[in-house]
Amino acid sequence: MKIDSTQLAFILENTPSEQNIMLVGRHGIGKSRILEDFFGSRGENVVTLFLGQMSDPGDLIGLPHLDEKTGRTEFMLPYWFPTDGKPVVLFLDELNRARPEVLQTVMDLTLNRKLAGKSLPAGSRIISAVNGGSEYQLTDLDPALVSRFNIYEFAPSVEDWIKWARTEGLDERIISFIDENSEYLDGDENFTAENLERTPDRRSWERASKIIQNFEELNAMVQPMISGIVGNRAAAAFFEFVNLHHLPSVESLLAHGNFSENKKMLDNLNFTELTQLNEAVFRWLEKTSPMIAALSTDAAEVVSENLISYFDWFAANNKKELQAHFASLVSAQKFPHALNFIVEKAAPLYTRLLDLSSEL
Q1: What whole-number distance in Å separates Cα of residue 280 and Cα of residue 215?
Q2: Gap between the Cα atoms of 335 and 325, Å rounded
Q3: CA 3 – CA 272 distance, rounded (Å)
Q4: pTM score
Q5: Alpha carbon distance 325, 95 (integer Å)
Q6: For 85, left (φ over 0), alpha (ψ -120 to 50), or beta?
Q7: C-alpha distances in angstroms, 168 versus 34, 46, 165, 336?
Q8: 66: β partners
Q9: Across-strand partners of 150?
Q10: What is the average pLDDT across 330-346?
Q11: Cα separation, 302 vs 306, whole angstroms
């Protein structure tokens, strides 16, 4: 049975620490990040070991050395082994890419919680992840090893990703595109020696977001760069989507004339386009507000008044979700200059935002 992120969190919460968990799923779907976020919020340390990169058991259990006092050979503890007595969450990634000799070491670890005779602290957990599908070069797992795990096929939903992407502040243009074109979130693998074709996954969309957040307008120069991240087909579909959802100029909306003359531009925009415009407003403020504030008081006042009118337009048109989305973008980390402009030059808007946050 497939499980999503919510079901996985429930399983992690209610599975005893002595029971091992195995997650089956394709790469790039966020297995390690979900584990780090879940256990990190509880103050538990997650140690990730990529077994597919280990050439021999020594990479896992440490190197042997001679104890001169006893005359016996012992193993030096590996860098990750806890020495403070606190339990850890040991995440064994790429389990079915590990060499057979490494898997033999894992057998004792999963059964007895020991490596080379040294025990993990009480309460430690072992979670593994395996890649499923014919596109991977895999090692067959011993049934005796498999039997030591509770096995779940992890397939986080598109809704899971969209919720996470908004929490993490990914570019709204990408979120809106995936919301309407979910088939591009996890592309099909097509890696062969003859045809190396890049296809999208959840990690690649996050990387693409970090790049396009620097561009209010996505021109022809940007598309080849995004193609190298998500692949030609996904990038072409994304840029076509952005062009179809063409937005009015933020500068014309905020910096020229008064809002009543320009608000008609908003009437024909749908929800997706208005969320994109919200982000465009903050990118524009982040880039230009220091210059506007330095030019003249009048210029700052025009932008301030139009910005307040823009926010109030949502309430006047019963678009509370878009007001909430606007408020979610007020961030000292992501848009510090924009926030500073709102606080100093558009104080009534800042008050409205505080009132809104208390209502939510």
Answers
A1: 9
A2: 14
A3: 28
A4: 0.65
A5: 41
A6: left
A7: 13, 20, 5, 16
A8: 73
A9: 21
A10: 89
A11: 6
DSSP string computed for 308-322: HHHHHHHHHTT-HHH
Work out the number of other CB atoms within 10 angstroms of the CB of residue 255.
16
Which residues in 95-113 are b (16+ Cβ under 10 Å) and which e? Answer: bbbbbeebbebbeebbeeb
Residue 201, number of CB atoms within 10 A of its CB: 21
Q: How far apart are alpha carbons 54 and 49 in whole angstroms? A: 9
Q: What is the DSSP letter of 103?
A: H
With the C-alpha atoms ordered 283, 287, 289, 295, is the resulting torsion angle positive or negative? negative
Which residues, in sequence order, are bridge partners of residue 91? 48, 127
The three-state DSSP-derived secondary structure of 263-310 is HHHHCCCCHHHHHHHHHHHHHHHHHHHHHHHHHCHHHHHHHHHHHHHH
Number of alpha carbons in the 13 Å side-chain half-sphere of residue 21: 22
Pairing of strands 2-3, 118-119: unpaired
Cα gap 65→320, rounded to integer Å: 66
What dihedral do alpha carbons 260, 265, 270, 273 form, nearest 10°? -110
Which among 295, 279, 296, 284 has a CA at the least distance from the CA of 337? 284
- Using alpha carbons, select from 262, 340, 337 the residue that is nearest to residue 302: 262
Alpha carbons 278 and 273: distance in angstroms, whole number: 9
Q: Under 8 Å CB-to-CB from 112, ≥6 apart: which residues?
A: 119
Could you tell me the two tokens for 18? 């002595």
What is the C-alpha to C-alpha distance for residues 204 and 201, in angstroms, rounded to an integer? 5
3-state secondary structure 124-148: CEEEEEECCCCCCCCCCCCHHHHCC
Sign of the CA dihedral with 286 first, then 231, 162, and 129 last? negative
What tens digit of pLDDT does each residue of 235-273 get? 999 998 888 777 777 888 888 777 877 777 788 788 888
pLDDT, tens digit, for every residue of 24-76? Answer: 887 777 788 888 889 988 988 898 888 878 877 777 776 776 777 777 777 67
